[in-house]
């Protein structure tokens, strides 16, 4: 979408025009023009799409492209592959094809933090202190419905004060072997093998009530957050 925006804008700045086309002229091309309007005029998806439909009534962006355009809006009309929103979207699309995939794409895994140095916030195994992931791997989610979201479990000890008790993250390189060919399983520390959490390509429910798909979760009570402090001499 960024390349298309630059191409269209260059044509218009030069006093010309750009032909945006696809096979039927209804979905793919309409998605690109909508993205252009969003970025150029700082519009949300709904308003940009409405403006396009007002001049070409037969456009019909498919649901998959609509989802991507909403993501584009949430990322402030920048294709940012480091954004947690983008990472979660990418993981969700991969989960729709799993386990038919022969393997998980390598680029989906975050670099093992033991193989790189960084001042970023890190998270270590509480037992052996092995670094497991960095702050940039965290995938946040909106708070769920609390106790009401667990009504199907018919538990009498649930309250409205349920909070997130796990970190949901992108997969990290040390997880690769555990994910091969299975839909779910445990996540163990790659150094001391203590149980850290679990994963499920079908998704899992956070303690706050939100359903996260796919879910790669490490329990907070098994992990320590490490921050570097600037100490003035």
The computed structural class is: alpha+beta
Bin the strand percentage.
15-25%
Order of helices and strands: HHHHHEEEHEEEEEE
Number of strands: 9
- Enumerate the spans where pLDDT stays under 50 for 5 or more consecutive residues: none
Alpha carbon gap, first and last residue? 49 Å
Over the alpha carbons, how many angstroms does the gyration radius reach? Answer: 22 Å
How much helical structure, as a percent, in the residues?
25-40%
Largest sheet: 4 strands, antiparallel
Shape: elongated
Number of helices: 6
Query: Largest beta sheet: what is the strand line-up?
Result: 3-8-5-4
> What is the averaged pLDDT score?
89
Account of the 3D structure:
By secondary structure, the protein is α+β, with helices and mostly antiparallel strands. It contains 6 helices and 9 strands; from the N terminus they run αααααβββαββββββ. It has a 4-stranded antiparallel β-sheet with strand order 3-8-5-4, with no helix packed on it. Strands 2-1-9 form a 3-stranded antiparallel β-sheet, with no helix packed on it. The longest helix is centred in the first third of the chain and has 14 residues, at 28-41. The mean pLDDT is 89.
